[in-house]
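Input.
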Amino acid sequence: MVAAGAAGVQLLSQSAMSACPTLQVVIDLNAVPPLGIEGVAATAAGVETNGVIGYGALGVGGTKMKIHRAAVAHLFESNDQILDAEEVYLLALTV
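Output.
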């Protein structure tokens, strides 16, 4: 689950997460308190809590930048490329 909401709004509580037994990973892109996902710190980078792996807005930033750099470098390999979501995902698996 990726949470990207308005600043100051909690989108997912601990109790809601507990009610979803298949939930494996949460990513909170909101770094403004209160956090968008309760219990996931902005700096979390793969922190497991109650069986759910959490990433906060700052914790996911380094990975996002690595993927961004790889995508831009790939685009410079030739001038006729277009990267769709699937291609960016495949690039992300290499970083």
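The longest helix spans residues 57-75.
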